[in-house]
Amino acid sequence: MSKIIISCAVTGSVHTPTMSPHLPITPDQIAQQAIEAAEAGASILHLHARNPETGEPTPDPAVFMGFLPRIKQATDAVVNITTGGGQNMALEDRLAAAEHASPELCSLNMGSMNFGLYPMIDKYNFSQEWEGAYLEASRDRIFRNTFKDIENIIERLGVRHGTRFEFECYDVGHLYTLAHFLDRKLVKPPLFVQSIFGILGGQGADTENLLHAKRIADKLFGDDYQWSVMAAGRHQLPFVTMGALNGGNVRVGLEDSLYAGKGRLATSNGEQVRIIRSVLESLSLEVATPSETRSILDLKGGDNVSF
Predict the structure, then answer these.
(1) What Gene Ontology molecular function terms does this protein carry (predicted)?
(2) Which among 178, 209, 240, 280 would be 20 to 30 A from 171, CA to CA?
(3) CA atoms 271, 273, 278, 283: torsion sign
(4) Fold (topology level) of 6-304
């Protein structure tokens, strides 16, 4: 087995400030937690931005630039900027930060889908009005990623900036969509395929689904891809461990789960990285360095970004 790439998704656009006092909101907090995660062993940092006053997801490149240069200066980690953004953002908004920063890696969602956040509403007494309304909106909103949208992102970031992609696949059909773009030669190996489990609207966090996703990816991509696994909420640690045991890379972070054990909030992204690194090393699996990750994924290098 090759070395395991640990990705850390630092803040995301799913959880809201009321849910955890440890969710990084300000540029300072995002930078600090990203740096800690890199020091703990994450070689990829997947980044969203938040309005520093309210904690609401924001696409504003100026906010991203409040933490991107600090992370680059303090770590050698690969920066992976979202193109998914938040559920209320138009595609132009979602691409703004990535086009400004020209990163080595960006996320790219491989299909439109329902993305249900509203079941979390009844679990919290929100401190800000926007939080409940934001979650409720997911009941009647489609997370849009059409074929044309995907073509647009590949052209604007892949072709013009030399950025490569973390292909986020929330269902098996998304793997076939990626294969379609591979057949058209709009994307090229090695593909970095992120199988995502446990989001309402996507594939469930069942062992059968994990193994099936791997079988289909093997069938479609052969040796031309790197597989990674992430899972939402309480499924995070057991699922990424199963992924690693089946030859996959792993993703953790407060975007995906707020916890570091049953009923215990994670105090930082770094804590989650340290936990999964300890698990991997106890299984005699080696963790990839940022330099090794760049080689594995054929990235353009940290000197070729714009931050």
Answers:
(1) 3-keto-5-aminohexanoate cleavage activity; metal ion binding
(2) 280
(3) positive
(4) TIM Barrel (3.20.20)
What dihedral do alpha carbons 288, 48, 257, 172 form, nearest 10°? -80
The Cα–Cα gap between 268 and 35 comes to 11
Rounded Cα distance, 43 and 76, in Å:
8
In this prediction the pTM is: 0.97
The CA distance from 77 to 106, in Å, is 14
User: With bands split at pLDDT 50, 70 and 90, how would you rate the model's confidence at 1?
Assistant: low
What does the pLDDT average to over 249-260?
Answer: 98
- CA dist 220 and 193 (Å) reads 12
Compute the distance between CA of residue 125 and CA of residue 273 in angstroms, rounded to an integer.
Answer: 29
Q: Which stretches of 41-128 are DSSP H helices?
A: 61-64, 68-74, 91-101
The span from the CA of 185 to the CA of 179, in Å, is 10
For residues 114 and 200, what is the distance between their CA atoms, to the nearest angstrom?
7
C-alpha separations of 128 from 17, 35, 62, 132, 273 in Å? 9, 28, 24, 8, 29
* Token representation of residue 97: 């930060």
pLDDT tens readout for residues 100-129: 999 999 999 999 999 999 999 999 999 999
Q: Alpha helices of the chain — where are they, by DSSP H?
A: 27-40, 61-64, 68-74, 91-101, 129-137, 147-153, 160-161, 172-183, 207-221, 236-245, 269-282, 290-297
